[in-house]
Amino acid sequence: MNQKEVLERAWAMPLTSPIYPRGPYHFVNREFLVISYRTDPQVLREIVPAPLQPAGDDIVKMEFIRMPDSTGFGDYTESGQVIPVTFEGRPGTYAHNMFLNDDAPIAGGREIWGFPKKLANPTLHVDKDVLVGTLDYGDLRIATGTMGYKHHSFDSQKALAAVTGDNYLLKIIPHVDCTPRVCELVRYRCENVTIHGAWQGPAALQLFDHALAPVARLPVLEVVAAVHILTDLTLGLGEVVHDYLA
Q1: Structural domain for 75, as ranges
Q2: In a domain, 16, yes or no
Q3: pLDDT tens-digit series, residues 162-172
Q4: How far is CA 162 from CA 93, 94, 154, 202, 241, in A?
Q5: What is the pTM of this model?
Q6: Segment 180-228, tens digit of pLDDT
Q7: 117 counts as catalytic
Q8: Catalytic-labelled residue, pool 117, 128, 150, 171
Q9: Residues 101-104: contacts with CB within 8 Å, 24+ apart?
Q10: What is the CATH number of the domain that holds 174?
Q11: Pick from 180, 221, 246, 234: which is nearest to 67 by CA?
């Protein structure tokens, strides 16, 4: 393989057998449980990286996402915390942490966009009359979210706006000497979105302390809302909106 051929094929690792195919990536029957809650505003300000700014004083969203059918990435489940923010006056969300149970989307999410993904074991399922999201890191439970199953319809246009808004990621790739080779603020959006259903209902959320999965660093002070959304969508490729090394 000559150098020109290396460059033509060098879009993911390993070179001769990439862990994921080229995007974009389409998801069918992607299911969200999103629980919004109030937290410590001081900790929130310490976590959000400039030039992003927290959109409110104290709101965090804990997400549990079931993805049974995605091109290239397969069947997996994800959970994490996102924070409402603004960038240059425009509203969006910032992904603070993400945990999932599939190697390919962990690698692809980190390498392409900069998703802050770690290997863990989240679930999203219906337990009789309750939608339940759980997150285990190793053998330890670090999050449990519950919501009354389809108690009330949620406005489909609000659901569409929630799924198609601006999302921000801090993409970090180290150099061989462990200094930053890439340090960028990336924006992406979900595209070709079809809302199959959206509901709201009473909810509860518990977070537990863990040294390497610190979801409880943003403590739950009050649950303020919960939505359950079922959708098809395409995960749009990203754009760099700020280069910290420039």
Answers
A1: 23-243
A2: no
A3: 999 999 999 99
A4: 10, 13, 12, 19, 21
A5: 0.96
A6: 999 999 999 999 999 999 999 999 999 999 999 999 999 999 999 999 9
A7: yes
A8: 117
A9: 101/76, 101/77, 102/73, 102/74, 102/75, 102/76, 103/19, 104/19, 104/20, 104/72, 104/73, 104/74
A10: 2.40.400.10
A11: 234
